[in-house]
Amino acid sequence: MQQAVIGMDIGGTNIKAGVVTLEGELVYDLKAPTHSEAGKAALLNTIEETVKTCLQKAATCGLHIIAIGIGTAGFINLKGEIGSATANLPDWKGTPLKEEIAKRIGIPVFVDNDVNVLALGELWQGAGQGINDFLCVSLGTGVGGCLILGGLPYQGRSGYAGAFGHQIIQMGGVPCTCGSAGCWEQYASVTALRRQAAEVQEKAWADNPRLIFDEAKADHRKAQNLVNQYTEYIAVGLSNLIHHFNPPAIIIGGAITEQGDFLLDPIRTYIEQYTMDGFANDPNLPIIAAQLGNRAGLIGAAKLAVTRMEA
Maximum CA pair distance of the chain? Predict the structure, then answer.
């Protein structure tokens, strides 16, 4: 019987899961509401039910599941426990997720941060194929990050490496959910873009940031100014990371990268402005949009399971 794994991506709104072969073929996938407001116990039950659905589907396809990989929002320690989490997943902090799901299912479970598994997905089947070392940054509700070294996420001393969104780019700046102020996340996330739109009294843009880009493409001056400001904020944080890590490539994820070069070109221009010679040019540093969309997390979680089983 052919072997396969289950990959799962747990977000504040939905859980995305699927059955993936050891070669990276997505055989089956599903999406279920997280219902995080119901609390930790209910979420763990939903995860268990989702895994069991995937197990049943795998059996009908003649596949034997050997492991489960899970990516989740929050900072995950080396034991597979939730070290910290935001209000998007209430009461999630401290959950021994790896141990709890392994106990319920009886299959090896591996857990990591959602951006780490996004980066693994892009490494395996997306924009990172053939690149064993790169930075990955995800722009969404917050700003998450991952440093891939030798084909693996760098985890740091406790497993919390990659909190790029909490580098401070403005002393005394916008208060952050982490308790600090002036964090990059408060300027470069999509949440920040919504706030910036509200500050220029454009409620429709704040409700739907895609409209900002649509208007900017149509030569709306206020929208163009907003896009320029936003991409400059992104570039400032990336320039710091480039100076820190001198990476071979940067992959940017999140739904906003659907804007393609309309988003990336000004980021590249500002990076050239803010970065010392040799770090981002000579030759130019590849700054690439992620390719796997909303399946990157589950594909990457599957890769996490494959990699940990092979270790």
Answer: 60
pLDDT at residue 89 in the model: 84
Letter string b/e over residues 147-166, b meaning 16 or more CB atoms within 10 A of that residue's CB: bbeeebbebeeebbbbbbbb
Under 8 Å between Cβ of 209 and 256: yes
The two three-digit tokens of residue 126, written as one number:
């997306």
Beta bridge mates, 76: 82
Q: What does pTM read for this prediction?
A: 0.93
Measured CA to CA, the distance from residue 226 to residue 222 in angstroms comes to 6
User: What is the secondary structure of 193-257 as a DSSP string?
Assistant: HHHHHHHTT-HHHHH-THHHHHHHHTT-HHHHHHHHHHHHHHHHHHHHHHHHH--S-EEEESGGG
Q: Residue 285: CB partners within 8 Å, gap ≥ 6?
A: 242, 247, 248, 249, 250, 271, 279
Question: CA 173 to CA 95: how far, in whole Å?
Answer: 32
Asked if 135 and 147 touch (Cβ cutoff 8 Å), the reply is: yes
Helix H or strand E segment including 60: helix 40-60
H-helix or E-strand spanning residue 143: strand 143-149
Q: How many Cα atoms within 13 Å fall on the side-chain side of residue 143?
A: 24
What pairs with residue 175 in β-bridges? Answer: 181
pLDDT tens, 12-65? 889 999 999 999 999 999 999 998 889 899 999 999 999 999 999 999 999 999
Render 247-275 in DSSP notation, one character per residue: -S-EEEESGGGGGTHHHHHHHHHHHHHHS
**Tens of pLDDT, residues 86-119:** 777 888 999 999 999 999 999 999 999 999 999 9
- Judge contact between 167 and 183, C-beta under 8 A: yes
